[in-house]
């Protein structure tokens, strides 16, 4: 029997935000920051973090990896018109 393993990484999209000198904040985010109490209040700060997150993405790549396995038995392989040389080239 022969086992063929197909494996590849695929990149579907890329993004890159221009790096402005100052980031423009959305009105909602700006208001949420402005309304935070001056003394630490766990629930108030947690709410802002849950709503807006903790990171700014400046660039990224979207994609993945796939793997496929194909098993050929000798009888099927020998009955095909594919030679071992052609098989190895594949």
TrEMBL record:
Keywords, alphabetical: Cytolysis, Disulfide bond, Membrane, Secreted
Start and end residues of each MACPF domain: 1-90
Keyword Membrane attached: yes
Pfam family, one: MACPF
Predominant subcellular localization, coarse grouping: membrane
One CC-aspect GO term: extracellular region
GO biological process: complement activation; killing of cells of another organism
Subcellular location(s) per record: Membrane; Secreted
Superkingdom per UniProt: Eukaryota
PANTHER family on file: COMPLEMENT COMPONENT C6, COMPLEMENT COMPONENT C7
Family: Belongs to the complement C6/C7/C8/C9 family.
Protein known as: Complement component 7
Species in which this protein is naturally found: Nothobranchius pienaari
Organism phylogeny: Eukaryota, Metazoa, Chordata, Craniata, Vertebrata
Gene behind the chain: C7
